[in-house]
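Journal club side-thread
Mid-discussion, someone asked how the predicted structure for our own chain would compare to the paper's figures. Pasting it here so we can look after the session.
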Amino acid sequence: MPRLSGAVVNHLLTGDELSDTELASLLERAAELKAGRGRGEGAGALAGRSVALLFGRPSTRTRVSFEVAVTELGAAAVTLRGDELQLGRGESIADTARVLSRYLHAIVVRWQEHDPVAELAAASEVPVVNALTPLHHPCQALADLLTLRERLGGLDGVSLAYVGDGNNVARSLTILGGKAGVEVRVATPKGYELEPGLAALDTHDPREAATGADALYTDVWVSMGDEPDADHRRADLAPYQLNEELLSLASGRAILLHCLPAHPGEEITEALLYGERSAVWDQTENRLHTEKALLELLVGS
């Protein structure tokens, strides 16, 4: 798979780093890796390489999918929590990047703030992948696009309605979805909006966003760090629940998406989360395949 064009050191921090062509190629490669997993497709692609996985917060999907991705590509995964690094004792982010660059071939980071990840990338001599920050979640959006591609037969002209909090998931969907030809509509309460101009449609009306959409997407109402405002957030977001009424407005082929973990009965009804139109479990599996394709793209020769 060809490496990213442009910069000498290639990072994935927001998704904007990928061109439309590179994104299409990455998704095609992810589909190949998924189809050929049972016969070892991609095995050894990163043989002799080492990839750091840095986690500032607890993780299930991100940690497991990246550890498996690195292992199946033949590389060594070095998994570290934030409190296991010298960052906690005053070493600078830039010096941490310089040190890790001498040992590793890539750094994958899930962190509680975005700026430190950008600072790490600025000083790193190896690719840095944003595995999740409060501002961006590009790895999730890649898996979402592969899921849409599989379920709907392609991406061009697909419409997706995201309802709820205008968070990192919504932002990454607009960035990468737009590059893939997906019309991303975002419906949020006042005060929860994305920056103007990111989405194809910005609205406060979830019904407007959902009407005729090919996919409906939501996320938890109370993310890590939001706990002090939990009651207030639940009250604001209650009208944005992904439920049967909203689904009835979507297209006849509409699928349901959620990046997990989910709270059935809050942001999505239990019947929809576990129903026949849910593609949620495909999404979570596709994290593995798109992350393998991404690592090949950034680290492979």
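Post-session note: The longest helix spans residues 280-299.
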